Amino acid sequence: MARSIKKGPFIDEKLMEKVKKGGVGPIKTWSRRSTIVPEMIGLVFAVHNGKEFITVKPNEDMVGHKLGEFSPTTKFHRHGGKMQKELEAKQAAPKK
Asked: What are 52-58's contacts with CB under 8 Å, separation 24+?
């Protein structure tokens, strides 16, 4: 459910202060719930996913989305089974 228009987008206050200061290097944040606003475009963020920091570089298409959407918390390994092994064998085989 979207946030009310009269309230505006949620941005963590400490994160907004860091954005206004700018600075060198990525801005480290644990605030995955903060909305990306136009002031953040061009900056680099290091968003925590629960284990490590993932680098996120916001662009115009990301405005309105949350920072956490671009820092996945789970890692997809692969599906298993006989079909997957056959596909991997085809890809590994040298092409003529």
From this structure: 53/26, 53/28, 55/26
